[in-house]
């Protein structure tokens, strides 16, 4: 039998099947893609930290006077604050910047891909809608706290190094300066507080993603108007403010629960790992994300 006859008699080769990636790997690459397309998640915190640290280093030449003031009873509080407050300010600025970026990202995450019709391309890829939505939620819930912590720690290290040089050159005394540096107190708070903050805001992030996947236009208005109107109706109809208090707790209570700020003991107790508010918020976030997945599955360009 000739080679041609042998080839003709051989059964046809089976068509090659595309490799199927496991869901976790798909999620990993989807998160990387989201982060690559939304670099503001790390550029924003880095930029604000650079500006804040630059301002601190310029003012660091006044540290010897602050150390002297901290040693005098009449001016001790003012001198100690001049040394300690900049570290908390830098951390606060980075945290707030990240939150603003996360809120705007979630409000546009599903809406923008429908608006620019890139949804058609992304849905042509073998990536389930659940993976796509979870990847978008992972940026504010997982990536942002890591970025914030890394940026804050790096900024504090630069501030400590610059301060040490100034204090050493002035001969003011390291012990007197270090006694008012709050990093050993701030860093454990950040390690616990930043993950808590991300999960505390999870229902807001998930709600914004849901509205982003539903609204055909003005997702910012649709995200904010319903809870505000509900609070207004409750106030006018029943004279109570339960919805307003819930909104205030969800927006600012996290700073009392995560970082011990403020003087509202009830708010501090409500915003904690063991609080029903915390776990009910996570349950609401899960529902919102499930609805967002369902909307994306049926979504069309707008």
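Sequence proposed for the structure above (302 residues):
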């Amino acid at each position: 039998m000739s080679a041609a006859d042998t080839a003709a008699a051989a059964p046809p080769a089976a068509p090659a099947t595309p490799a199927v990636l496991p869901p976790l790997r798909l999620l990993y690459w989807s998160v990387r893609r989201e982060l690559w397309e939304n670099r503001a998640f790390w550029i924003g915190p880095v930029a604000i930290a650079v500006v804040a640290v630059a301002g601190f280093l310029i003012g660091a030449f006044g540290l010897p006077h602050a150390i002297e003031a901290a040693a005098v009873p009449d001016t001790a509080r003012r001198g100690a604050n001049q040394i300690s407050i900049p570290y908390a300010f830098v951390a606060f600025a980075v945290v707030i910047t990240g939150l603003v970026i996360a809120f705007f990202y979630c409000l546009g995450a599903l809406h923008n891909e429908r608006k620019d019709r890139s949804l058609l391309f992304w849905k042509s890829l073998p990536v389930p809608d659940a993976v796509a939505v979870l990847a978008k939620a992972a940026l504010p819930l997982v990536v942002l706290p890591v970025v914030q912590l890394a940026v804050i720690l790096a900024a504090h290290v630069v501030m400590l190094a610059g301060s040490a040089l100034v204090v050493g050159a002035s001969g003011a005394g390291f012990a007197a300066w270090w006694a008012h540096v709050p990093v050993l107190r701030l860093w454990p708070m950040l390690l616990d507080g930043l993950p808590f903050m991300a999960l505390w805001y999870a229902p807001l992030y998930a709600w914004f993603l849901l509205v982003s996947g539903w609204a055909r236009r003005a997702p910012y208005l649709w995200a904010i108007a319903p809870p505000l109107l509900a609070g207004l109706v409750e106030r006018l109809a029943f004279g109570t403010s339960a919805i307003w208090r819930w909104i205030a707790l969800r927006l600012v209570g996290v700073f009392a629960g995560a970082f011990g700020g403020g003087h509202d003991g009830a708010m501090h107790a409500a915003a904690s790992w063991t609080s029903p508010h915390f776990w009910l918020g996570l349950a609401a976030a899960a529902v919102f994300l499930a609805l967002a997945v369902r909307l994306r599955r049926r979504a069309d360009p707008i």
